[in-house]
Write a structure and sequence with these properties.
- The structure is a single chain.
- The longest helix has 19 residues.
- The chain is built from 11 helices and 16 strands.
- It is of the alpha/beta class and 319 residues long.
- The strands form 2 sheets. Strands 1, 2, 3, 4, 5, 6, 7 and 16 form an 8-stranded mixed β-sheet that branches. Strands 10-9-8-11-12-15-13-14 form an 8-stranded parallel β-sheet.
- The protein binds nicotinamide-adenine-dinucleotide (NAD).
- The site of nicotinamide-adenine-dinucleotide has 25 residues, from helix 4.
- Nicotinamide-adenine-dinucleotide (NAD) binds next to helix 4.
């Protein structure tokens, strides 16, 4: 098997590569050629979370798992709190083919998913980008969003306002004016990306204008919540995978409250393949519930491995 360490990933997979890989696997899911296995997620105590996301992509010839989690004590040890590693296997034989550092790849595949949703569902004339959240992942989401629409400016809100300076600096790098705003002013945004670890809704229905596209990316576990459930009742809801959306995604709350039925949620892959038309009018609110699926991880990891093979990088070991 080939070991591709974290330090090599930035040179092997670009944000554009991640966009293409994730779009292809969402389409494969829509065609029934790829599917995710049930997510395993365990609380280990003292805030530590560990889990497995896995799947099989028959079209892309990938079988594998991302193992990883969140270990809040790591920072004090001088290592990052988020830990993840992707393992790939030959789907015919089950032999391990690769072990790949999953940190940057997770950030890239998550940013790619929200950018694909913006590309496919936001109005073409979207000019104002709203960011809710300003942690590690927010900068990746902002950069990826700016690649798919010609935004004039960015507005941002975060529970911890001191973190917004870093996001403002990224907007400035992209040549976009940035303003920290109260949540009420998110009504000015044409596209809103939410990327927080919030346990309760921050963004309310009243904060969102008709015609907005929302990419809700932070809720990937039971009990997390970023937006008011009524918003999902009012919006056309899309997701990476319906089973995850209703169990660990943002839709879990609207479904539990009886405001949304699972049958009303559309896989984003259906829009990519043309099976669903996507946005139907300029006034429609579209909402992408991005829960993060194992197949996204396998798609970007496989790309890293292909590039590493071509360039003779990484380490080959017999297991
Ligand atoms: P981070 O710890 O770096 O940042 C957390 C963010 O949440 C910060 O903006 C913080 O101010 C905000 N926050 C914390 N508590 C809050 C609260 N009570 N109310 C509102 N905001 C609060 O984390 P990150 O790496 O930026 O990830 C953000 C979220 O995205 C996490 O929940 C993470 O699990 C999730 N995530 C999802 C995917 C996916 O595929 N959907 C992938 C990666 C990360």
């Amino acid at each position: 098997m080939r070991i591709v360490p974290e330090a090599l990933i930035a040179g092997l997979v670009s944000p554009e590569d991640a966009f293409a890989a994730v779009e292809a696997v969402f389409a494969a899911m829509s065609r029934g050629e790829a599917y995710n296995f049930d997510v395993v997620r365990e609380a280990l105590g003292e805030g530590r979370q560990y889990g497995f996301k896995s799947g099989l992509d028959r079209a892309g010839g990938q079988l594998g798992v991302k193992a990883g989690g969140y270990f809040p004590g790591n920072a004090a040890r001088g290592i990052i709190n988020h830990q993840s590693t992707v393992f790939l296997f030959d789907p015919e034989t089950g032999r391990p083919t690769a072990m790949v550092g999953g940190g940057l790849l997770t950030a890239l595949r998550t940013a790619a998913a929200s950018a694909i949703s913006i590309d496919r569902l936001a109005r073409r004339d979207a000019r104002v980008l709203g960011m809710v959240g300003a942690g590690h992942q927010a900068g990746f989401q902002l950069r990826a969003a700016a690649r798919v629409r010609q935004f004039d400016r960015v507005i941002g809100w975060n529970l911890h306002p001191e973190m917004l300076d870093r996001l403002g600096a990224i907007a400035a790098e992209l040549g976009l004016p940035f303003e920290a705003v109260p949540l009420e002013r998110m009504a000015e945004a044409d596209v809103i990306v939410t990327i927080t670890s919030s346990p309760a809704a921050s963004l309310l229905e009243a904060h969102v204008s008709p015609g907005t596209h929302l990419a809700c990316m932070g809720t990937d576990t039971k009990g997390k919540q970023e937006v008011e459930p009524a918003l999902l009742g009012r919006a056309s809801v899309f997701t990476d995978e319906i089973a995850q959306s209703v169990s660990i995604g943002e839709a879990q709350h609207a479904v539990a409250a009886g405001l949304l039925d699972a049958t009303a949620i559309t896989p984003l892959g259906d829009v990519i393949t043309g099976a669903h038309p996507g946005r139907r009018s300029g006034d429609e609110i579209t909402l992408f519930d991005g829960t993060g699926v194992g197949l996204q991880d396998l798609a970007v990891a496989a790309m890293a491995v292909r590039r590493a093979e071509e360039r003779g990088q990484g380490m080959v070991v017999e297991v």
